[in-house]
Amino acid sequence: MADNIEIKATKRDVVGKANRRLGAGKVPAIVYGVGVESQSVELDRHEFELLLSRSQGISAHLIELTVDGDKPVNVIAKAIQHDPTSGHPIHVDFWAVNMKQTITTSIQVHFLGEAPGVKTGGVMMHNMSSVQIESLPGDLPEFLEADISGLDIGDSIHVRDLVVPKGVTLLDAEDEIVASVVPPAKSIEEEEAEAAESAGLGGEVTEPEVIGEKSDESGE
User: How many other CB atoms are found less than 10 A from the CB of residue 214?
Assistant: First the structure.
């Protein structure tokens, strides 16, 4: 289970396009969900960015959100929008949850070890960086692990191979590939050579007989 995070926020009167008037040190956010009235709040940008840098997959963390010193509300960060240029967070959706009701969220997959197949020329493919799970808010794992140390060329890890904690259910199809080691891509020269060989151009070339040409054996 991931450790809980504490975040402090203040109520926000500026909404919509006017959010751009917020100070550079603030991040607009909204709180909605079970047992709370939807309200607009703002976060300290510096503190929130520090939190993002320390937390691996913040969506997997249960957050105790305190607004203007009121009683903390259990929420998860349902969505975080980032500026496409600077990468800074520009808006956060906090979803209030009921601790006794299961929720669905995305959890990051961490890959452990080194695949032997890569050392022999294979290419490591990380097909899924996260998976969908269902659990009680208090049972949310911080991340799931996928051990790739046994993968040779042609081997794969599927969703069904992931080990999840008690109380957590994987929602992705069990035959979905999480990671695999594939053969190296062939060079253009190799592909052209194989194509020529399959077309019958790779062996000895013989000159075609010209129809109507007299044979030397005819004696004429």
Answer: 9
Residues 141 and 105 sit within 8 Å (Cβ to Cβ) = no
Please name the fold of domain 105-185.
Answer: RNA Polymerase Alpha Subunit; Chain A, domain 2 (2.170.120)
Per-residue b or e along 82-93, where b marks 16 or more CB atoms closer than 10 Å to that residue's CB: eeeeeeebbebb
> What residue spans define the domains of the chain?
5-98, 105-185
C-alpha to C-alpha distance for 31 and 214, rounded to whole angstroms: 94
**Could you count the other beta carbons within 10 Å of the beta carbon of residue 219?**
6
Paired residues of 145 in beta bridges: 110
| pTM score, whole prediction | 0.71
User: According to the model, what pLDDT value does residue 117 have?
Assistant: 95
CA distances for 133 relative to 31, 123, 156, 165, angstroms: 22, 28, 21, 11
d(CA 39, CA 23) in angstroms, rounded, equals 19
CATH architecture of the domain with range 5-98:
Beta Barrel (2.40)
pLDDT tens sequence across 153-210: 999 999 999 999 999 999 999 999 999 999 988 645 565 666 677 766 554 555 555 5
